[in-house]
Design goal:
The chain has 14 helices and 17 strands. It has about 550 residues and is α+β, with helices and mostly antiparallel strands. Helices cover about 50% and strands about 20% of the residues. α11 packs across α13 and α13 packs antiparallel against α14.
């Protein structure tokens, strides 16, 4: 071999070596790539297997004979079984006896399926806790003609059936409620055709529900839509979803004649894409409207009678006021005429007593003294009667008055009498502002003070105590004394005219003072009372309202 040939061979050999090394590197890279793909494929298979096993839907694979060749854990959990116990047994072993025919029919339908189609059946499976599970089986066919497999999804229908049962029960419950309602109820569609009604509605129109279902509301109610406000109101409810409340309309019933119905309407819509319907409640108010018309006529008559009565009362009141004025004027005139002779008689008697030239003797002097005393007593009695009559006839309007200021004025007016009788006045706090009358309170305080100074034992100095208390809506003013006291059975008697508990000789007076106190306080809306014990004094009280804020 020449040197030229050995060089060419060597170059060829090197080229081949390089080519083989490149092929080896490429093969190693392909092998590494295949390993990665194999690993990724295995990971994908593992993920798919985990997904298959843990997916919430139960899956089983059935062969042509209905044997379970594969399943996921969800399917085993559905029946309360271990995973391995579901492999190879026939599907029929897990089907409720009453539904085995449904399962066999499902397998036959799968056998006739040529791929791509779905076979769906509903049946019940047996749980290990001896209860049934409603399911839906959805199968698809795969494999070859020699070996076919049915991939089957098992969907638990328990919750769906519960919901359907709840809906059914709710519907039945609602229907029962509707049927027990005495007012007529009905449901109409958007064309105002009757869909449903209760028995009360059927009874109102004396027709069977089957005959009225599907009819138009216009035909049933026997009303004309033309010029009738009812249709436009129903359209507002349907289109604007504005409820109709207490709408009255009239209809002509073939058996009952004219009727007045009260209508309430509300729109109902189960879903946004469903057609709305109207729930209509009717009430026959014919009798009520008739009664209202009679009441209106009666009220009109009563109003006329009341107006006439008020007119007569006003006229009579005016006559009585004029009569009272005349009577009051007459009484004052009579009193003035009576007091004149009495003063003359008392004056002449006093003159006889004081005239040193007149000798009457002991008996004559006693007669004159009695005549003077009787005249003075009669004059005081006439004055008290006039005062009592004035409080019965004069108009007294209660206003806010300061009881403390009135008490100050009364004590100042009685200053001389209080000193003569050595009387002591004790005031516990300040009297309030009350709803009263200035003249009334002054008269009441004066009479009660005079009684407190009059009705005491001979050796006792009068002591008068004045205080007040808040009783909520009223003020109660108390005037207590240390007098002879009153027995409980006489609490009411002392406020009556001319009712005296003691003789004129023992305690002077006319027996009208406390009657004036009660009558005057009653005229301004107050009350008066007494608490007392014999020998332990008396506590008179007057209760008057608080003035408005």
């Amino acid at each position: 071999m020449t040197s030229g040939e050995s060089t060419a061979a060597k170059e060829e050999r090197d080229r081949l070596v390089v080519s083989l090394e490149l092929q080896q590197t490429q093969a190693e890279m392909e092998i590494a790539h295949l390993h990665r793909e194999q690993k990724e494929l295995q990971q994908a298979r593992d993920r798919l297997h985990n997904l298959y096993q843990n997916i919430p839907i139960s899956y089983v694979t059935l062969d042509e004979n209905g044997l379970i060749t594969d399943c996921n854990r969800t399917a085993a959990n559905l029946l309360g079984l271990e995973f391995h116990s579901m492999l190879n047994p026939a599907l029929q072993n897990f089907v409720l006896c009453e539904d085995i025919d449904i399962a066999l029919l499902h397998l036959r339908r799968c056998g006739r399926c040529n791929g791509g189609g779905l076979v769906v059946s509903e049946l019940r499976l047996k749980h290990t806790e001896r209860r049934s599970i409603p399911v839906q089986m959805v199968s698809t066919c795969s494999g070859t003609e020699r070996r076919r497999e049915y991939q089957t999804a098992i969907v638990d229908l328990t919750e769906r059936q519960k919901n359907e049962g709840a809906v059914r029960e709710a519907r039945e419950f609602a229907d029962a409620i509707i049927q027990t309602i005495h007012e007529p109820l009905l449901v109409v569609d958007a064309s105002f055709r009757i869909l449903r009604m209760n028995e009360a509605f059927a009874e109102l129109f004396h027709a069977a529900p089957k005959l009225m279902t599907g009819l138009s509301l216009e035909a049933v109610l026997k009303v004309s839509w033309t010029g009738n406000d009812l249709r436009s109101r129903l359209e507002d409810v349907l289109l604007k979803n504005v409820p109709l409340k207490n709408f009255e309309f009239r209809m002509q019933h073939r058996a009952s004649g004219p009727q007045v119905l009260l209508c309430n309407v509300r729109r109902l819509q189960h879903k946004e894409d469903s057609a709305p319907v109207l729930l209509i409640a009717l009430e026959d108010i014919t009798a009520r409207k008739g009664a209202e018309e009679q009441v209106a006529q009666t009220n009109q008559l009563l109003q006329h009678l009341n107006e006439e009565l008020e007119r007569r009362v006003d006229a009579r009141t005016h006559e009585l006021r004029e009569s009272n004025k005349q009577l009051e004027s007459f009484c004052y005139s009579i009193a003035h005429d009576l007091r004149g002779p009495l003063r003359v008689m008392a004056g002449f008697g006093t003159a006889l007593q004081e005239d040193p030239n007149v000798r009457l003797g002991d008996r004559g002097a006693d007669f004159v003294r009695r005549i003077v005393a009787a005249g003075q007593q009669m004059d005081t009695l006439i004055q008290d009667l006039l005062e009592y009559g004035r409080f019965n006839t004069v108009e007294l309007l209660a206003t806010a008055v300061d009881a403390n200021e009135i008490l100050n004025r009364v004590i100042a007016n009685l200053h001389v009498t209080l000193q003569e009788r050595h009387a002591k006045v004790v005031r516990k706090g300040k009297l309030p502002v009350v709803l009263g009358h200035d003249l009334v309170l002054a008269t009441v305080f004066t009479n009660l003070f005079n009684n407190a100074m009059k009705f005491v034992a001979q050796d006792v100095k009068p002591e008068i105590t004045v205080w007040s208390e808040d009783t909520g809506s009223h003020y109660r003013i108390w005037i207590g004394d240390n007098g002879i006291g009153i027995e409980p059975q006489y609490y009411e008697r002392i406020f009556e005219v001319f009712k005296r508990l003691h003789s004129q000789k023992t305690y002077a007076g006319t027996g009208i003072g406390l009657a004036i106190v009660r009558r005057s306080i009653q005229r301004i809306g107050g009350t008066v009372g007494v608490e007392s014990e014999p020998g332990r004094g008396s506590r008179f009280w007057i209760s008057l309202q608080k003035p408005p804020p």
